Amino acid sequence: MKLATLRDGSRDGQLLVVSRDLRHACHAGDIAPTMQAAIENWEQAAPQLRRVYDRLNEGQISSVIVFDPHAVAAPFPRAYQFIDASAFLNHGNIMERAYNLTVKKDKNIPILIQRQGDDFYGPHDDYPFPSEADNADFEGEIAVVLDDVPQGTQAADALGHVKLLMLFNDMSMRTHLFRELGMGFGFILAKPATVFGPVAVTADELGDAWADGRIHLDLQVHRNGEWFGNPNGREMDFSFADIIAHISYNRKLGAGTVIGTGTFSNKNYQEVGSACLAERRAIETIANGEAKTPFLRYGETLRFEMLDASGQSVFGAIDHRMVQA
Amino acid sequence: MKLATLRDGSRDGQLLVVSRDLRHACHAGDIAPTMQAAIENWEQAAPQLRRVYDRLNEGQISSVIVFDPHAVAAPFPRAYQFIDASAFLNHGNIMERAYNLTVKKDKNIPILIQRQGDDFYGPHDDYPFPSEADNADFEGEIAVVLDDVPQGTQAADALGHVKLLMLFNDMSMRTHLFRELGMGFGFILAKPATVFGPVAVTADELGDAWADGRIHLDLQVHRNGEWFGNPNGREMDFSFADIIAHISYNRKLGAGTVIGTGTFSNKNYQEVGSACLAERRAIETIANGEAKTPFLRYGETLRFEMLDASGQSVFGAIDHRMVQA
Lengths: 325, 325
Hints:
2 copies of one chain form a homodimer.
Chain A: E1 2-6, E2 14-18, E3 24-27, H1 35-40, H2 42-57, E4 65-66, E5 82-85, H3 89-99, E6 112-115, E7 120-121, E8 127-129, E9 136-137, E10 140-146, H4 155-158, E11 162-169, E12 172-173, H5 174-183, E13 194-196, E14 200-201, E15 210-211, E16 214-215, E17 220-223, E18 226-229, H6 240-247, E19 258-260, H7 269-272, H8 277-288, E20 301-305, E21 318-324
Parallel strand pairs in A: 5-19, 7-13, 8-21
Antiparallel strand pairs in A: 1-2, 1-14, 2-3, 3-4, 5-6, 9-12, 10-11, 10-19, 11-13, 15-16, 17-18, 17-20, 20-21
Helix pairs in contact in A: 3-8
């Protein structure tokens, strides 16, 4: 099923059930007032939401509204826990080769970045940042949302906690990223607010494309209306099962925890392109000794979308514009 | 005023107003159901809570309960945004000297660590971790809690957003810390759940000891009932004004954001001791070539407390025990 959060002026908005074709929606506040309330009470809420979803898809609900992706916030407008992985090692390998970096990695330990969850942007919100000199960049990613995960959860049990998936653009400020990476304590100015697609979906919406704790679909990325890349999720070097098990070694994860893939990146990047500017610039640097693709300027637009096997948009699109803060 | 969160089986508990002497409390659910609700609506809630607090201290409230610090959760059982600083450079300097580390620092940029907020422990909760080989350590710290902070807030305006202060123990797993520091992406296994003192207090409770965006009081640390250290907060190299301004350069901070000082650390550590094991071990290593103070074992207890000028406990005490997960 597909769920969204209608803006209503409150911090957490109102829960909507959205039809599979993303054309219609209906209010689900009688089941759970917000997305966070739904995930905290998923065992009770999910079957009820699914009945509404089925009836909505069958055209049996009279009080439908037109689904307007401009009227929604991020599915979770805020979250108590957000960790982003960097699970496509191909991306890191390209970056290290271009810039002669040596990241001390362990092939059994995923790179994970603790992130803030208090301010997630909706799919069509203008994205404000204070200076073009910050070298603004995007990263096309997918996230999972978990119910309560006990401390010590093993990989074999981890995927049972994945209740929803979301599309997101992990905006990154590269000027600050290299400095903060060198300090070693993680990212602050390098990773401001994150931008999410219109709907969160249950894994069954992906059919066979959700397998081995990975999303086997292309992530379509466009910059100013032009194709930028469409890497596939199947090349994740660490599955979500691996990632969840690693994190929960010595912490429990609260319901509504968001965990991201890291920027999509494929070995055949010559054909499928990239999902972030930094990677394309690194590829240019390796090939030609310098990067020619510029970082983002005010007024530029970005679009991210993922289509299922039938061509249906899974999450709806992120389509947003960079603006002066 | 002093506020706490009574456990009631729900995720966010119930808001209590607590008397200055920490002996009595009364329910404040008619003003705000939870601490998070109070901070999101602080302008309306704070004057009402203060009236209750004043009457409670004057013995004018009939429906008082005995304040039991064993019955409370962390003041904020969870938070959407938690950043810990490392604002006492003395601590880092000792660590670097002992272990020949070179952290790429900029004297104008505070070290900041993005942290998770979905699972804060109460002051007397047993602390479970999976292995003594993780080299468990504590860090005695103070945190501020903010109301909504706009993007681009300047240092001159930052302290007006500080609404509450809290005492906390930033539990740290040193085996993982050195590895994760080397990777550069921040901490995951090195920094599991954080432990908070019984009450959150407004800055006026500190009197003159809240000055220049710093807490000019000693933080008393005991290990298994024995004195371990009592460093003072006045030596913070970055004030909370500096820290908040730095963070909000390109992000807004949601109401309920928690920002920590980093482990208290003073230049006269020979007299006042330390607030974490790693620092004492580093001092031993510098003096004798090796550390003799062991990391935490199961069954050990830790106590953290801060007294005001009159000898009154400001936040109540954290007093908890290490246990096998």
